Amino acid sequence: MKNKSVLLGILIIVVVIFATGCMFSSLKPQDFKEHFGALGYIVSDTEEPKYDTGTSYLVATKEDVPFKIEYYEFDEEVEAKKIYKKYETNLKDYLTTSSKNNATTGALFSRLVAVSDNEYIVISRVKNTLIFVAGTNDYSKEINKLLEEINY
């Protein structure tokens, strides 16, 4: 009986964490700069974003990889959701063939991974921030690792 109570307590804690969003903390612009800068990426705040940004737009690039990591921060979460939707709707602009898409959505996050013959694209939103990466299949593991490190 005691084991069931302990398991029930742990289950309640896990549910509360997921329900309240404690597991999802958005990355701040300074953290993005520091993290990718430490990995050898050049982080720029002077590039023009594809879509209008509210607060911040940063791009991390590295000479030896054929993709860039775009970071958006918005004043409101609803703005991040709108840009996420625009990227999702215009995904065809980045694809050369049809893709298999895998979407995951929660109260505080959304993530779409599109895999085509050549491309590997990730759109990931956490609260009022969004990360967009349009890469190739050859770099899918590296892209996933980078995004896992920052919890996107």
Provide an overview of this structure.
The model is unreliable at about 15-20 (pLDDT under 50). This protein has four helices and seven strands, in the order H-H-E-E-E-H-E-E-E-E-H. The protein has helices spanning about 1-20, 30-40, 75-90, 140-150; strands at about 40-45, 55-60, 70-75, 100-105, 110-115, 120-125, 130-135. The chain has about 150 residues and is α+β, with helices and mostly antiparallel strands. It has a seven-stranded antiparallel β-sheet with strand order 1-2-3-7-6-5-4, sandwiched between helices. It is globular and about 35 Å long. The N and C termini lie far apart (about 40 Å).
> What is the approximate shape?
globular
The helicity comes to 25-40%
DSSP summary, beta strand count: 7
Terminal CA distance reads: 39 Å
How large a portion of the residues is in β-strands, by DSSP E? 25-35%
What radius of gyration results from the CA coordinates? 17 Å
What is the N-to-C order of secondary-structure elements (H for helix, E for strand)? HHEEEHEEEEH
Major β-sheet annotation:
7 strands, antiparallel
- Stretches where pLDDT is under 50 for at least 5 consecutive residues are 16-22
The number of distinct helices, counting runs of at least 4 residues, comes to 4
- Based on secondary structure, the structural category is alpha+beta
Q: Estimate the mean pLDDT confidence.
A: 88
